[in-house]
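Hi Y.,

Following your request, here is the sequence exactly as I used it, all 365 residues.
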Amino acid sequence: MKIVEHVPEYIRSLIPYEPGKPIEEVEREYGISGSVKLASNENPLGPSPRALAVLRERLPELHLYPDGDCFYLKRALAQKLGVQPDRLIFGNGSNEIIELAARTFMRPGDEAVMAEQAFVVYELIVQAVGGKRKTVPLKNFTHDLAAIADAVTPQTRLVFLANPNNPTGTIYRRHDWQAFLERISPDVLVIVDEAYFEYVEEADYPNSLDYHARHPAILTLRTFSKLYGLAGLRIGYGIGAKSVIALMQRVRQPFNVNAPAQWAALAALDDTEHVQRSLGVNQQGVKYLQTEFARLGLSYIPSQANFILVRVGNGPEVFQRLLQQGVIVRPMVGYKFPEHVRVTVGTMAQNQKLIGALERLIQAS
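Below is the corresponding structure, written out as tokens. Let me know if you'd prefer a different format.
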């Protein structure tokens, strides 16, 4: 077909995002049962019970189009965050918000700066719109904000920061963040991905919302996929200046957030019991896993999220051998950590199954 010959090289050279293996595929492939998936940073307790209840109640309404502006969810979230509703935009996961920002504020040839080992979707989306990616190595597994500021040029339109960072689970601190902001021109939109911010316990973690008034060229990204357990419904949101959000709304497709996602997110927003249980399970799990990794002689990166990056030697080989034992983790070759795997914090039973499987691998070697 002649049409494919006209596709630009920046599209041809894209490498599609590769999701983790689902449990069903692993069990079919290896003829096993009782597997655990600790690969995609999902909430091991499942969705908010309040969200499940409202979904069951409202399923007969699926013949109706969703609210195209997420009116009720927007109003409730604005009140919870203490912002005006017109500073919020919702998307099919926070991934869509990233794409909307790139499509709105970048033209082919414009630059975007990001950490070298951060969420791979930043690079994919920038390349997909014809932008140029400038990546900056991590420093001690953490965003090097000074080096990222050094990399910004007059051609830079976006800077991507993940706090906590995926896949390392690390955070940058308030002092470095404030120094970074002082160096960044208001001509550059700073996109702060806070998908895991609820899990952070450190006192000097800089909540980017606190800086919007002084630095309006900040777009904060958050999601209902992690703590609230709604990953399967795909709903995330962005908070930014009214002028930034208004332009992104022009690019957003109508009805981009489905109705069940809106119903569930609105119900989950006030499910404080589920939130507290989820945080408690994660805190307990992080402590257990990090203690056990140390006992097994495995180095790890102390995490402020719901996952841990652990060094296991040959990451792809360990990933495959864990699959054979019914434990799904995430190999990190694509993130240039070939000796590591990323492990989602699960329930205590799931965590113990992982540690048992790793211990058997170590003993066998």
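The domain at 2-46+273-364 is CATH 3.90.1150.10 (Aspartate Aminotransferase, domain 1).

Thanks again,
Q.
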